[in-house]
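Good morning C.,

I know you're traveling, so I'll keep this short. The sequence:
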Amino acid sequence: MYLHIKYDFLIAQEGVADTVDAPVPSFDLDLASNLPYLLAQASALASLQIDALAKSVGMSRNETKTILSLISDTGRRQGHTLNELAEIMMVKQPTLSRVVEGMVKNGLLKRQTAAADRRTVNITLTHKGQEQATILADRARAVEYRFQDKLGPQEFKTLVSLLNLVVTRLK
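The C-alpha cells, ready to paste straight into the viewer:
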C-alpha cells in the first residue's frame, strides 16, 4: 500500500504550478543514486572550481561568470542585454545589475544602445575586459581539462551531453 503526497513543481517560464502524485519517500533514501542530490553535489564541487578561478584573477564568481558568458557566444559580438545575461548565468537580474555596474566602473564592461532598437542596451566587454577574458578563458579551459582528466575523455563527453540534456529539458 502506497501513501501519496503532492509535490508542486513550478514551471518558471509559464508561471503555472504542475502537481504530480508521488509515493511518500522511504527513510532508506540512497543519496548516492538520488539525481537531485548528486546534481547539487556536483554543482557545489564545480562552484568551488569557479570560485578558485575567480579568486586567481581577483574577481567574484558573478564577475567571472559574466565575462565567460559574454565570450561564450562568439556570434553575438553586439553583447547581451542584462536580462539575457541573467538568464544565461541563472542569477537574479537585480543581483546581476549590481555586478555589471561595478564592472562598468572598473572599466571591464560597457553599455551600448542597440542600433536596431534604441530602447535596448547591450552589455559588452571593453578592451580591458577582453584582456581579462583571455586570461579567464585560458584558466577556464585548464579547469575543464582537469575535469576531463579525472573522468576520462569518453565519460567527460557523455556527462557534458547528459547535463546539456538535463538543462534543456528542465528549463
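Safe travels,
E.
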